[in-house]
Design a protein that fits this description.
single chain, 178 residues, alpha+beta, 5 strands
Length: 178
């Protein structure tokens, strides 16, 4: 049994977070890993939870007679995973709000057992005119399957903190030590 040394310096605490507005680089491509293999269970659960009864996601026998010859991963699951893969690296704890998604497309299908890999490009950043210490960031998310084929694209606009303003807000709430 070891004795606690009260005079020992406290270990530095590092909180995992995304990047602040001022840390993002215009034109940079952020590669998110690990990829996510989407399974039959993922697809059926997501599809039924969201009450999407489309046979292309649920009915294997019927889907075999359709152009792709098998069930497709629900495109809303693909979209949610595409955005979700970017969160730990880019927006965890640094986003204020998602302002919108647009230019969403699915140029190729994703099937059960396919792995989705996502990359994000920062298209544009600007400081907010009406919200000091915050900025608007537009991202382009691109999802590839394990063969490198693009299966999903989405443009996403977010409102994000600058580091200084967020730290000041946290201190004001008593959440950051000075």
């Amino acid at each position: 049994m070891s004795e606690r040394n009260d005079s020992a310096p406290e270990a530095r605490r590092i909180v995992q977070r995304g990047l602040y507005f001022d840390e993002l680089e215009d034109g940079a491509v952020y590669v998110h890993r690990p990829g996510r293999t989407l399974t039959e269970a993922d697809n059926v659960l997501f599809t039924t939870l969201t009450m999407n009864t489309q046979a292309l996601h649920l009915d294997a026998a019927w889907s075999e007679s359709q152009p792709f010859g098998q069930r497709l991963v629900n495109s809303m699951l693909t979209l949610a995973t595409l955005v979700g893969q970017s969160v730990p690296q880019l927006t965890a704890g640094t986003i204020i709000a998602q302002l919108g998604l647009d230019e969403i497309s699915f140029p190729a299908p994703l099937f059960h057992g396919d792995t989705l890999y996502t990359e994000t490009t920062v298209l544009e950043r600007r400081l907010s005119k009406s919200r000091p210490g915050q900025g608007v960031v537009t991202f382009q998310h691109t999802g590839h399957n394990q063969h490198g084929k693009v299966v999903a694209l989405a443009r996403r606009t977010t409102l994000m903190w600058t580091r200084e303003a967020h730290e000041e807000a946290e201190r004001g709430r008593g959440r950051l030590e000075t």
